[in-house]
Amino acid sequence: MRGGVVTHHVLSWYRQIEGKEIQFLVSHRENSSPTYGSGVAERFIPEVEPLSNAFKLTIGNVENSDEGTYYCAVWFSYKYIFGEGTVVRVQVFKDTQRPQMTLLGPSLVEMKLYRSATFLCHAARYSPNALRIKWHLNNQSSQHRSYTYPAIQTSSNTFDQTAEVSIPAALWDQGVEVTCILEHETGVQHLTTRANNKKQRDCKPERSTHDGMKHARNETEVNPAIFGVAVRAMGPDTEKPIGRSN
C-alpha cells in the first residue's frame, strides 16, 4: 500500500470473472477474524504484513474455478479504493510462452502537425493471456495519456497485445528516454529508446540511418543477457520499428 498504513484500515479482496459481476471474497483487519462473502470457502486466507505494508491473499487447494482478476480494496473516507487488479490463471506449465516484444516510434508527420509523439509497444505470441504493459519516461512512471488495446487470440492459441503512449514532441526532441515494460509470468521485459541530441525534425532520412533515433535497448529481469534489436528506417511519413527482442 502506498500513501497509507495497512494496519489502520479494513482491507478486502474481490474477484471478477469475465462476463460476471464482481464478487466479494473476504475482508480483514489486523488482529481480527476475517469476514467471508456468501459461499466463499475459508481456503482464501487474507494476511496483513505490517513490515512490507502489504495485504496478501493466499488461495489454498487451487481449483480451475479460481481463475479471474483479483482486486484488493481499502475502505477509506467512506468509500472503497481499488487496486488495478491481478489476473490469476490456473494452467499447466507447458503452455507458457514468453512474449516477443517490439517498440514502434513516433511519426514525423504527427510530430510536425500535432506536436505529439506516439509510441506503440507490441507483445506477440505469448501465453497465457495475463500481461501488463507499462510506460516509463526517464525511469519514472509515465503520467501521459496511454491506452492498452484488448488482447487478440491467434490461430496458434497464443495472444497478441498492443499499447500506446503519447507525449509532447518537445520531450522527445529533448532526448527523453521512453521505456515499454512487459510484465508476464515468464518474466519482465524492457525496451528503451531515445532520440539523438539533434532534434528529430532536422534529420534527413537516409537509407543507412534511423532518422535521429538511437538503438533501442532490450533488458530482461529473468535473463541478464542483452537481447538484440533491429532498427530500420522507413519513410518520413510512417512509423518506424525501433527495436524488437529475439
Automatic annotation (TrEMBL):
KW Disulfide bond (keyword) present: no
Keywords linked to the UniProt accession: Immunoglobulin domain
Keyword Calcium appears in the UniProt entry: no
Domain Ig-like: 99-196
Superkingdom per UniProt: Eukaryota
Gene3D superfamilies: Immunoglobulins
One Pfam family here: V-set
InterPro entries (alphabetical): Ig-like_dom, Ig-like_dom_sf, Ig-like_fold, Ig_C1-set, Ig_sub, Ig_V-set, Immune_Resp_Modulators
UniProt-listed PANTHER family: TAPASIN
This protein's name: Ig-like domain-containing protein
Classification lineage: Eukaryota, Metazoa, Chordata, Craniata, Vertebrata
